[in-house]
Amino acid sequence: MSSVLLGDAHGISVVDFKPFLDGSAKQDVASAILDSFKRVGFVYLINHGIPEDKIKGMFEWSKRFFDQPMEVKQLAPHPPSGTHHRGYSAPGREKVVQHLYDDKDIKDSRAKAPDVKESFECGWEENVGSPNIWLPDGVLPGFKEACMDFYSTCHETELEILRAITVGLGISEDYLVKYHDGHENQMRLLHYPSVPAEQLKDDKIVRIGAHSDFGSITLLLQDDIGGLEIEDPNTPGEFNSAPPVEGALIVNAADLMMRWSNDVIRSTVHRVRAPLNAKTVNGMVPERYSIPYFCSPERTAVVECLPGTYTADKPPKYEPISALEYIMRRLASNY
């Protein structure tokens, strides 16, 4: 397995994904990914299959979009409903919350301050329940097409990672793939404006508060600024940097995957703060761009603990639940 392990970044394994994609060392790669998911819930993948030119191009489109005047970006407004994550959200619009299931929890658990970021979100173009919200025709031509092309490319990579997870667990390679048609995924373009370093350090403002994702897995591409931190699995409340690794795709398991795996796989709380050793200019932390791609099963899927993750001595911890019921609870809590 050592040939596929390229090192680690603050305890998160850096894995060469190419031997899985070309079939030369599928089991070794799958085992390395699963081991990192078990330990910390995150893994870095090198040679992940998303072309570098497409990544560069999507970041360029993201910057072009966020450079538009506010009145232009607001032409594709995020709807008031928190269950319809599409369109543009201005800084301070969203408050990330954690594990909410009733009104009291929502009141008590909301972030103290809104997250200082702006975002644009899109999904499958033919999703009738959550239709995409684009800028009007003629405004930033080519943006919609670039987003949809990149969305499809990320979906292809998602399926390969899901295959690796099941190979690692010793079950059918397509066991998870059949639940993930890409129709319920969400791509988010994120821009974190430059902010005062002291306010960020003192938690007077927040980039993204501590949270875990709620779907199956999340793919994350980020620039070289940094700031992502994950909770130490052995010391709750203590966070470690997950620094940018050149050429890497960061993948983290989300809450539904943890439930699906009978807690064999971790869904780890993470946040975005000031990057370590950030070079400030006049006391300001530099702006940051990232592209998370949130993967969820089709909403009719019934999620029950995967074969091989339980035994007679270690029975399933969770009752079956529909993906729709679980995800709608979590989506509604963020707005």
From TrEMBL:
<comment type="similarity">
    <text>Belongs to the iron/ascorbate-dependent oxidoreductase family.</text>
</comment>
<keyword id="KW-0560">Oxidoreductase</keyword>
<protein>
    <submittedName>
        <fullName>Thymine dioxygenase</fullName>
    </submittedName>
</protein>
<dbReference type="InterPro" id="IPR027443">
    <property type="entry name" value="IPNS-like_sf"/>
</dbReference>
<dbReference type="InterPro" id="IPR044861">
    <property type="entry name" value="IPNS-like_FE2OG_OXY"/>
</dbReference>
<dbReference type="Pfam" id="PF14226">
    <property type="entry name" value="DIOX_N"/>
</dbReference>
<keyword id="KW-0223">Dioxygenase</keyword>
<dbReference type="GO" id="GO:0046872">
    <property type="term" value="F:metal ion binding"/>
</dbReference>
<dbReference type="InterPro" id="IPR026992">
    <property type="entry name" value="DIOX_N"/>
</dbReference>
<dbReference type="Pfam" id="PF03171">
    <property type="entry name" value="2OG-FeII_Oxy"/>
</dbReference>
<dbReference type="GO" id="GO:0051213">
    <property type="term" value="F:dioxygenase activity"/>
</dbReference>
<dbReference type="InterPro" id="IPR050231">
    <property type="entry name" value="Iron_ascorbate_oxido_reductase"/>
</dbReference>
<keyword id="KW-0479">Metal-binding</keyword>
<feature type="domain" description="Fe2OG dioxygenase">
    <location>
        <begin position="183"/>
        <end position="297"/>
    </location>
</feature>
<keyword id="KW-0408">Iron</keyword>
<dbReference type="InterPro" id="IPR005123">
    <property type="entry name" value="Oxoglu/Fe-dep_dioxygenase_dom"/>
</dbReference>
